[in-house]
């Protein structure tokens, strides 16, 4: 009996490996093209894709994946088209002879024509495909997406990787609102097709790429642009300013104030069932530069400079709110803020929001604390 049990166990152990599928869908790296960036342009009839790839033979193993390979990241650019994005993406293999590998894609660039016609189809495809990384950056080009991916970025041979580096470095100024695919999808759902997407263009002087303001999306379509000051105003309101410089002129003297950290608090009050938004921004900062050389700064001088700095920040916020009302688009998300603060009240005013928003009262209070003056003073 004991012998029978042993034979039975051995038989089961021999049969189990046969049932395992193993690497049935294994594909060598040489059979795939690793896509680093995608540009999406559109005319009336077709979608045009510009796909920037990393040549796999040039990739060496390393802890950081693709970007830890050779210092010069060799690229190739492939162009495809189709009736929709899915069709155009599949046609990649007809041009390259390889299957596109999207899991390492860093950026998606939407051409302005594509964005004007609507980004809903783009988001639908990208959210359905199982290979897409939801942490890839999304941008809107002020020209065609093809032109962007064919352009150069300083210190980087691969344009897509260079754009990703640009977004990371621009966080130091808080002039750019960087958004990935995941958060873009959440915003258009929360705000009914409204969102902000960073804008990219070609610098006419340096002939290289630069981030230039932000695209405003309404009903899933590009309707306007906001500049870098209005973009930072949006970031102030939403508590997303982490660093940057506030340029302050006081008594004819220019100062550079470095933002160390900031916190924003938003309250909602109601008067006669009409909402009033109260924004309070607290900023900790450091004096980094004074136009006139001086060896001593008094406390009174610092207090005055704090007030001037607060006023500059307040004007940035006011500029953003004014732009939002002028184009009749609540891209700031005041409707969402009211709903989260008081869902019952929001239900009462939701149908009248289009008439309430242009006249919405917003109180702004900015408190700046300059607690460092550098090695001098």
Average pLDDT level: 86
Supply the helix-strand structural class. alpha/beta
Strand content: 25-35%
Q: Give the biggest beta sheet.
A: 9 strands, mixed
Kindly, what is the distance between the CA atoms of the first and last residues, rounded to a whole number of angstroms?
93 Å
Number of distinct helices: 13
Q: How many domains?
A: 2
**N-to-C SSE series?**
HEEEHHEEHHEHHHEEEHEEEHHHHE
**Number of DSSP strand runs:** 13
Shape: globular
Describe the protein in words.
The chain is an alpha/beta fold. The protein folds into two domains: 29-226, no CATH class; 231-372, 2-Layer Sandwich (GMP Synthetase, Chain A, domain 3). The chain has 13 helices and 13 strands. The chain has helices at 2-19, 85-90, 92-96, 112-117, 120-128, 145-149, 159-170, 181-190, 228-237, 299-326, 334-341, 343-349, 353-356; strands at residues 32-42, 47-54, 75-82, 99-101, 107-110, 137-141, 195-202, 209-218, 221-226, 244-250, 253-271, 274-290, 361-372. Strands 1, 2, 3, 4, 5, 6, 7, 8 and 9 form a nine-stranded mixed sheet that branches. A four-stranded mixed sheet has the order 10-11-12-13, sandwiched between helices. Helix 9 (228-237) crosses helix 10 and helix 11 (334-341) packs across helix 12. The longest helix has 28 residues, at 299-326.
